[in-house]
Amino acid sequence: MADNEVDAWMAAYDNPMKDVVERVRRIVLEADPRVGECIKWQAPTFTYRGNLASFFPRSRQHATLMFHKGALIPGEHPHLTGEGKEGRTMTFASVAEAEERRDELASIVAAWIALQDGA
User: Fold this and answer.
1) Where is the YdhG-like domain (predicted)?
2) What does DSSP assign to residue 11?
3) pLDDT tens-digit profile of 64-102?
């Protein structure tokens, strides 16, 4: 469910990738009604029993979603990149690319919820 705090942030967000960020936001929120959102670290952050992912709001070439503990998310997610101990990122160059990755994002959300629920 959308949060008014995030809606206000989006209304003030001045970036050429705003439409892409908004599309990714909607895809993540539509993936599961238990996913929440808030503003943390001066950016929209998705939550479910902890922080799932946050946008990097300053990128002007693509929208970047950083999965805080992405390395722990089970399953194959080909567009989730990174080599660090925990974090992983996914970038989106366009609204069309976000739509192409809708199923992958939904899979990531489902895997995170299952992990957090101990399933």
Assistant:
1) 18-113
2) H
3) 999 999 999 999 999 999 988 999 999 999 999 999 999
Name the phi and psi angles at 68, rounded to 5: -55, -40
Number of separate domains in the chain:
1
Beta strands per DSSP E along the chain:
36-40, 43-47, 51-56, 63-67, 88-92
Q: What is the pTM of this model?
A: 0.92
Structural domain including 47 reads: 4-117
What number is the average pLDDT over the span 8-24? 96
- Token duo for residue 37: 């959102």
Quickly tell me which residue has 């609204």 as its tokens. 95
CATH number, domain with residue 63:
3.90.1150.200
